[in-house]
Amino acid sequence: MSAPTQTSARTDDGTPGTSGPNGGEARLLPDAGGHFDAFGGRFVPEALFAALDQLDREFTAAMTDPDFAAELRGLLTDYTGRPSPITEVRRFAERAGGARIVLKREDLNHTGSHKINNVLGQALLTRRMGKTRVIAETGAGQHGVATATAAALFGLECRVYMGKVDTERQALNVARMQLLGAEVIAVESGTQTLKDAMNEAMRDWVASVDTTHYLIGTVAGPAPFPKVVREFQRVISTEARAQLLDRYGRLPDAVAACVGGGSNALGIFADFVPDDGVALWGFEAGGDGLETGRHAATISAGEIGVLHGMRTYVLQDEDGQTKESHSISAGLDYPGVGPEHSWLAATGRAHYEPVTDAEAMDAFRLLAETEGIIPAIESAHALAGALRLGRRLTAESPDADPLILVSLSGRGDKDVDTAMAWFADLDGRADTLDSAANPDPTAPEVEPGEPDAGVGADPVGSGSGEIQR
Amino acid sequence: MSTAAPDPRAFDPGISGRVLAAARAEGRGALVGYLPVGYPDVENSLRAVRALTGEGERPGVDLVEVGMPYSDPVMDGVTIQKAGTRALERGVRTADVFRAVEAVTATGTAAVVMIYWNLVERYGAERFARDLASAGGAGLITPDLTPDEADDWLAASEAHHLDRIFLVSPSSTDQRLAATVESCRGWIYATSVMGVTGTRTQSSTLAPSLVARVRAHAPDALVGVGLGVSNGAQAAEINRYADAAIVGSALVQTLVDADEAGRPDDLAGLRAVVADLAAGVRTPAAGGPTPASAATSTPDPAGAPAPATHTPVTAGTPGS
Questions:
Q1: Is B64 helix (H, G, I), strand (E, B) or coil?
Q2: Which of A71, A308, B156, B306 is most deeply packed, by most CB within 10 A?
Q3: Is the reported ipTM for this assembly greater than 0.90?
Q4: What pLDDT score was predicted for residue B284?
Q5: Which of B177, B309, B314 to mutate to test the interface with A (most CBs of A within 10 A)?
Q6: CA distance B95 to B320
Q7: DSSP letter, residue A322
Q8: Is A96 in the same domain as A136?
Q9: What region does A284 belong to: left with phi over 0, alpha with psi -120 to 50, or beta?
Q10: CATH topology assigned to domain B16-286
Q11: What residue spans carry the region label Disordered (chain B) (predicted)?
């Protein structure tokens, strides 16, 4: 296990010295073809190459255009409400073995998640390219809501593709998109979830590329999307790094985020990548548990393949057909992952572990009842992971005083129905309503699937031997 | 063919390109017919691909394009998606492609395979090429693999003397179009419209200029035109300016109709469409539109698209 070694070598040096907050290394990749070494690239119909090249050119030009930067900065400040605050959650952290936990509050952004950061950037690019229509895929609906919001703000026509299953479990966000003037298409092909919404958006784009920008919501898909979305989400770590240095005078020992496609995770990782003393942890959706096969833990349990235009880890069968993923969280229910995560995993710079539905929902309720914050179920995976990390770090180094930064990527309003159903079911099985809710720091941990003994203890390292080209 | 610009190297027609050239030598364009292996089931799909060829009894397609169903077919419209999804549910495997290729080549007709790249990569590009060559297959059409990412396939196709048919699009830049043509062997797949597979009533206005752009770069290149071709009249029209017309969804639709009518082994609809198409490409080029094809009962849902795989969510009833 390299992680404890890394995290124990804490960096207290707060100066943005060698790499700098927007520092160098992370910007070296991808290469001109969109590759993160063996990952990424472009596996799409020829028809889309012209549009992808155009996007890459406009993005490159925009990133060196002071007017673009100023306009985006203005939107992020005056419309989104950035910078988002950081919040230390002391009562919640009582379950973390003595580690301190600080949340980066992307849930407080306008529209309720980190998705708006990327959407505003790409909406500006859409206008720059002279296109008048945006399409998007969405899982939990957060990216769809953000896209519908930006479309309203910029006067763009907007269509959002959403798996039919997801329109049912995230009905609130469907209504929000419609109120914002977007057309929501319930996709009934395939597994009727996020991957099929992406397929359908891609088909639309092939036919409409002259007037339409496909506003991908995560760090996935063909190049240059993984790079574009990472750069528009980088603001999360740029802010958080400065906020931690300002408040605590040090960098965190670990950064934790949930990973579906992986945009909030790359956003909060990006500026910490050059900080070798900061461990980066991505928590994937473990669903019912890896051993059941019902999960969405792509890096932990997938194999390298090609999906949605990129080479990356994919949940696939013996023939290379994509397997159905499972998660209580619609936003993490995806059988692929952004190629830069695959690269970070393969290089060992970041670590990935699964968090089960049950662990995530325990953390969901714990945060709500101890801190007055209802997280998105997606973000609850990161919270559960942070509790696990804290216990692990303090068990390994009893004198340590670890500081863990968690990306609270979204708020949980959209999840109230799912959560109430989950807890009604859970509380029907356990007999006392409060036993699971009230944290008792003296109580032994009883959560099933405790990672140190289970599959979670052997994360991406096991897959890295298979990296090949 | 005379041209002012000297052609640096002759286009290599490989195996399947010679089929297109042979049709041209007869004074007509070729007909390429697509069907997925495994639909309605593997055994019936083997009968269906043989039926495409006419089986020596009647005119059929000149070249069969055997499709391999894939879980995420982003270049395919609803008809081929539906057939592919059912084929996968009914257990089709990648290796069944080679059985379908053998079934076609046993009739004396050439076959190429249309397949999404992850399936080849998973099987192993080298191993796939070897097994395809052993089955008598001519090469691959790769809808989501361009020469940019094709190093493994270029090597494997070289080693096993297989054709590699990449796609060009109306949106392709001249630079990309040139690079793609130079990477192709056999022929070039020109997508006639910006869109995915499926039948369309309108003829493409983009296809003639796309074919002309290919020829401007490589005067002896062989070009097939696909997407939206559904009847004999359209095929004949395409073959006035291209070397082959590629038909897929209109053929698959006949199998869907038979399957949904509870007669998965009924190939009568398929044979009727093949007959219309085969007659279409044999219509003398000087003539106008072929009246015969208009009278056929070709299923052509383009005017009233079949129910899509998705529906708008109506306001007021979110998620209900």
A1: strand
A2: A308
A3: no
A4: 74
A5: B309
A6: 42
A7: B
A8: no
A9: beta
A10: TIM Barrel (3.20.20)
A11: 282-320
DSSP run (H or E) holding B168: strand B167-168
Name the domain count of chain A: 2
Task: Return the structure tokens found at B248.
Answer: 């897929």
Considering only the beta carbons, identify the residue of B74, B171, B311 that sits closest to A203: B74
* pLDDT tens for each residue of B12-61: 999 999 999 999 999 999 999 999 999 999 999 999 999 999 988 899 99
- Residue A70's Cβ-side half-sphere holds a number of Cα atoms within 13 Å equal to 3
What are residue B179's DSSP bridge partners? none
**Residues A260/A335, Cβ–Cβ less than 8 Å:** no
B287 Cα to chain A: minimum distance (Å): 32
Could you give the CA distance from residue B154 to residue B178 in angstroms, rounded to a whole number?
Answer: 17
* Residue ranges of B 38-77 with Cβ closer than 8 A to chain A: 70-77
What tens digit of pLDDT does each residue of B151-176 get? 999 999 999 999 999 999 999 999 99
Give contacts of A56 with chain B, Cβ < 8 Å: none
Question: Which residue range forms the structural domain that includes residue A134?
Answer: 29-81+115-230
Residue A196 to residues A189, B15, B306: CA-CA distances in angstroms?
6, 36, 19
Alpha-carbon Rg for chain A, nearest whole angstrom, is: 20
Token duo for residue B239? 């073959």
Q: Do A47 and B171 touch (CB under 8 A)?
A: yes
Q: Which of A39, A43, A138 to mutate to test the interface with B (most CBs of B within 10 A)?
A: A43
pLDDT at residue A456 greater than cutoff 90: no
Q: What's the rounded Cα separation, in Å, for the pair A332 and A346?
A: 21
Compare all CA atoms of chain A with the CA of B119 and give the residue at the minimum distance: A320
Per mean pLDDT, which range of A33-37, A277-281, A327-331, B227-231 is the poorest?
A: B227-231
In this predicted model, what pLDDT tens digit does every residue of A44-99 receive, in sequence order? 999 999 999 999 999 999 999 999 999 999 999 999 999 999 999 999 999 999 99
Verify that A398 and A424 share a domain, yes or no. yes
| pTM of the model as a whole | 0.87
Query: Is residue A155 located within the same domain as residue A272?
Result: no
- Give yes or no for A153 touching B (CB within 8 A): no
For tokens 């990527």, the residue is: A409
Q: Write down the catalytic residue from A104, A231, A409, A414.
A: A409
Q: Read out DSSP for A187-248?
A: E-STTSSHHHHHHHHHHHHHHHTTTEEE---SS-SSTTHHHHHHHHHTHHHHHHHHHHHHHH
Structure tokens at A337: 């992952």
Q: Where are the domains of chain B?
A: 16-286
pLDDT band at A140 (very low <50, low <70, confident <90, very high): confident
Residues A176 and A267 placed together within one structural domain of the fold = no
A91-A96-A99-A103 Cα dihedral, nearest 10 degrees: -60
Q: What is the CATH number of the domain that holds A142?
A: 3.40.50.1100
Contact state of B118 with A46 under an 8 Å Cβ cutoff: no
CB nearest A187 (choices: B71, B85, B310) = B310
Side chain identity at residue B87, one-letter code: A
CB atoms within 10 A of CB A466: 10
Buried b (16+ CB within 10 A) or exposed e, B30-58: bbbbbbbbbbbbbebbbebbbbbbbeeee
A397 touches chain B (CB under 8 A): no
Among the residues of A64-211, which ranges form H helices?
Answer: 66-75, 115-128, 142-154, 164-169, 171-179, 194-208
Could you say which DSSP state residue B192 is in?
-
Q: Do B85 and A50 touch (CB under 8 A)?
A: no
Where does B57-150 have alpha helices with state H? Answer: 78-89, 96-105, 117-123, 125-134
Average of per-residue pLDDT across A5-34:
49
Angstrom CA distances, A30 to A14, A117, B211, B259, stand at: 28, 21, 34, 47
